[in-house]
Specification:
heterodimer; A: 888 residues; alpha+beta; 4 domains; 52% helix; 15% strand; B: 117 residues; Arc Repressor Mutant, subunit A; 3-stranded antiparallel β-sheet; 4 helices; 3 strands
Chain lengths: 888, 117
Amino acid sequence: MIDEVRQGFHRLRSLFRRARQDRELDAEMSAHLELAIEENLERGLSPAEARRQALVRFGGPQQVKESHREARGLPLLETLLQDFRFALRMLRRSPGFALVAIFCLTLGIGANAAVFSWMEGLLFRPYPAVAHQERLLALTGTAQADRTALSWPDFLDLQRNCKLFDAFFVSKIMGTTLSIGDRAQVATGSIVSSNYFPALGVHPILGRAFEPNEDVGRGAHPVTVISYQLWKERFAGDPQIIGKTQRMNGVLHTIIGVAPEGFYGTFVGWAMKFWVPASMEDTFEAGGYKLEDRGERWIEAYGRLKPGVSLEQAQQEVSAVAKRLETDYPATNRGHGVKLWPLWQTPFNNAGTLLPTLGIMLVVVVFVLLIACANVGNLLLVRSFARRHEITVRVAVGAGRKRLLQQLFIEGLVLSALAATGGLLIAHWSSHLLVLLLPVRNGNAMHLPGEMDWRVMALSAAVCLVSTLLFALLPAMQTSKVDLAATLRSEMAGVVHGRSKSWVRSGLVVVQVSLCFILLVGAGLLLQSLERIRSDSPGFSTQGTLVTAVNLSASGYEVQRAKSFQDELIDRVERLPGVESAALARLTPLGYGSFSSAPIVVDGYQPPPDERPSLDYNQVGPGYFATMGIPLGSGREFTRADNETAAPVAIVNETMAARYWPDKNPIGERLQVKDKWLRIVGVAKTSKYYSMREMPKPFFYVPLRQNFSVGAALNIRTKLRPQIMAGALSRELKAMDANLALYEVISLQEQLDRSTSAQKVAVTLTGVLAGLALVLAAIGLYGVMSYTVSQSTRELGLRMALGARTPELFRLVISRGLALTAGGILLGAAGALGLTRLLGYLLYKVSPRDPLAFGSAFLTLMVVSMIACFLPAWRATRVDPIVALRYE
Amino acid sequence: MSESKLDLLQGTLDLMVLQTLAAMGRLHGYGIARRIEQVSGDAVLLNQGTIYASLVRLQQRGWISAEWGTSTNNRKAKFYSITKRGRKQLSEDAAYWQRLSEVMGRVLALPEGSDNK
């Protein structure tokens, strides 16, 4: 064994001592021959015969040298090094080719690497500071087919009863207003279970994490761990920060820890600024203390599996616990289950929103890569014809087919390795690109970084290898079939309509065009969807209504103070110049956040046995419908008279009216919500509530004063621009209470646009990549057409000599190019018809076979290929017949 | 078959070289090649040059050592000698060959059709 190691070492060393060892062998060989000749002479042979016999006995000196080299060195590595050096030499000799090829591949590999890094950083390993993320799962509740949040007591039961998990932990996103120094600012934080930091394996760099008992007892533990970013930016990195206090939502919290740099919490898309234990829940969440109520489902939870446990096993265990809870607590848990999700499918944060977009991006970048490979394949093919002479010579002197393939493959690998380096740089630079495409909310930019870890690198390297096989193999196969006899015959000049080997190159162009067509159709469909969504009516007026909020609970207002504050605020705002009306509502439609939901009973409506009607509703102030521009079909709006002392009332939407009172006008009918009977006073037009793509859903409204919520959004009907309104509002607010921070003021159209940001990302990225594909395909077409023209000089000259005129030659070349394009489009159309269905939910009121998208893709490609063919065609008309016929 | 020369099995040449050096002491490449030819009675097919691949292999494994020196008739040549490890390897390999050739001898001595009785 030791001897083999020793030998390996010597072999490796001999790589670098080749010249010296060859010299020594030469000396040894000549000594050998001299000794042999001498001995032969002593046996009485003539000098000539002595030498001849010595040489015969010795054998071929070249073979001896070769076998010596093989025995002492690493022959495989040596030939690889040789091929590598040769490849570099070849690239240096044709820098134009090398640059174009590397450019195309860099775009292709770079786009892939960028999407890989986004998928890694947002879906698969979104929490870079956390170890073993592959064992993390997201948890939600289920109610029939719907997804729900979880309740705190259910969470505790899961934690107690599940044996296959290391830990369950809770993280619920929320916001507050931080007044530090003289600046009040909206900040995002999380309500977490006390085991949050240890379960993630994250250790504060200062102070401590939460202790096990700190998520027990209503409001009992006003402590907080702050983020590194907040510590640095707002507390100037104060080393004495631990033990200091910060007022949040009216309660003084003691800062007990600072999270490490690079830990942003567990809500994909947002960088958390602080964390508080669950015991502080009702300080930050509307709707009271929910930790003891099994019916209040509000938390978002995660679990960490024990090593080696599969998702299925874990799901079985969790479901078994949920089943037991159903029998133990039928009132709150009947029909409720618990579902586990792999991290990349986490439904409650931006991972779920971006998943379909990123999935489509993956397909798109693979297409771009294929187009780039086709380009490089074509270039290599053209070059291999130019190198036919060199290769023929090498075959003639005995280069093996395998060796030839290896050498061409290495050349390709050098190209794609250089391109992969560039591609990784592109991916690195674009890792924060997604953030640019998504809106900034309340001054907090989203946090959506790509992640360049070794997995992304390895995958990109694999892509690089596979693409090398793709683009290098075809030309290599063609070249290695070199026919020695054929090359001895005179090189025949190509013909524009020639059928020889040009079909391979034409085929590649056709494939490129077809892939490009599919991408263009996809981009067109997505663009149309986005336009339709944004121009579609959501059921309220998007023009002339602004929305903002003042977080009263964040500043510690209790109910009575909040009520008088809200009244005064509305009065002040309505007195502002340019304001038509103003109204409060607990939530605005199409924002982030869930509407309240409650089981209902309708007078005179007998639900089928399996239906337990439960509907979403909003709490709105007087004048809400006028301010939002939601038309009332009949009845009246809420007024200031609909207050705590008045009879409870409600307004239903038309969808609800049609379902529960199909044959009559519901006005004056009764509706029971939470043991309270409400009299219906109006019917409003159905609008969109959660998203633009939802089906019309039954929904109702109750007066804010009769179902009070301290936190409320402020809607203002005005023609003023948001910035101007924001200034006026801030002044009013300052006059009322200097500790309050105004949320950003945006138009309802902006709110709608933000709710479609996933579509916007998809459209922008697909558009950019389709454009890229178009450029690559045009380069490919241009390359093939110019080569064809340059190879057909003789034919073109002949045609000219026989009387063909310039326009005819021009048409000849253009029509050949357009024929290729048309073939590609036909193929692409077939592919697109099959593939565009995959766009699925990103399409909105657009058929996957939309003629406009197909038509414009067709036109774009035709025009672009016309442009790509123009130069070669023009060159064809400049052929001088005399020169062309004398050619060769 | 018996008329033509023996083709060398892989590894046998290495063993022959080791044995030659063990028996003869310090020798140059030509000397080794000649010695093997003589001992085998010119029965093995050997291009003398092939000895050098074997020599470099043995040297890299540390079983023989080499140094430049002068031959009896005053020629500069590279002389090889077996090392201690080489002797150990030789005894192992020789024992293996003995056993193998005994076994082969016995197997080949089986009369044809002997399994039928």
